[in-house]
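ingest -> validate -> predict -> emit
validate: passed (alphabet ok, no gaps, 364 aa)
predict: started
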Amino acid sequence: MVGRLADEVVLSEEERAFLEAQVRRHKAARSLSDRCRMILLCAEGLQSKEAGARLGVHEHTVGKWRRRFVKERIEGLTDEYRPGRPRTVSDDQVAAVIERTLNSAPKDATHWSIRSMAAATGLSHTTIRRIWAAFGLQPHRSETFKLSTDPLFVDKVQDIVGLYMSPPNRAIVLCVDEKSQIQALDREQPVLPMASGVAERRTHTYIRHGTTSLFAALDIATGAVIGKCYKRHRATGFLDFLKKIDVAMPDGPEVHLVMDNYATHKTPRVKAWLARRPHWHVHFTPTSASWINQVERWFAELTRKQLQRGVHRSTAELEADIAAFIEAHNEKPKPYRWVKSADEILASVKRFCQRTQRNTCAEL
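emit:
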């Protein structure tokens, strides 16, 4: 008795190169690389039983992929389409969930949750989760925004971003601002230090020991910071801080100050002091646009690293820690990299305004 002859496998140069590459690839699917090994062994003249013995699989498996390769070539090594379980949720039901999520709210809450939407629609909570994930809906999240109403918004953005991305030659650009009302907070009970498997613990209640205000100037070229704390946030303190900056500046270069429109920055004494220094140039940020002042990024770093979890029993301790943070920062300063041009920023604001206007018109 003679059994059925196995299909002969003859490879072209391109097919052999593809199969060998899949075998060598570390990120190739295991199933595909195994099938490629089977075909390569069959191409060497081995029978299905012999190839299966080498690879540790049944001869019928080798015979199956041999026949599919001979018939369909490389495409035959991929899995066939499997219909799977029929859908139980229709397109109309999906559209109803999306419409309800976007345009309504439950009676007892400001936004939908997975469980409340499942109860309202009669679908399972896993189905609601899949629908929301597929369409990028996250009702539990909320963000804030505020658009500047400054009539010179475009001009100011172009001016300040131009300073950041192409500063004048032989000039110093300083971002100046104040972080007011920094509280010296002490916990009512001692902080419990971190231990293995246990996070640091502290009471949610605290004791106030006064406040201080920090004036800071960030050099955008070097990342170095000039800072000084004051008991009160007044124009006299700001003028004293400008004098501190003046002492620290070398003779000769032009000085460009980027600062906001706070009242303490525009008092007659401050204006007169700046007028006596024609090499100093002031660039005011648009109203409600503190994000354009780079020193705000440094304030965020100060808050995260020093203030947020700090324990201070007096304003003197607080000011000492702030001074130590500035000194440590200036030992290895690193400038922040501004990447967006003025045109990109204005285009982004324009798109946001158009999207907000469309949503408002749709609600009306």
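The chain has a mean pLDDT of 89.
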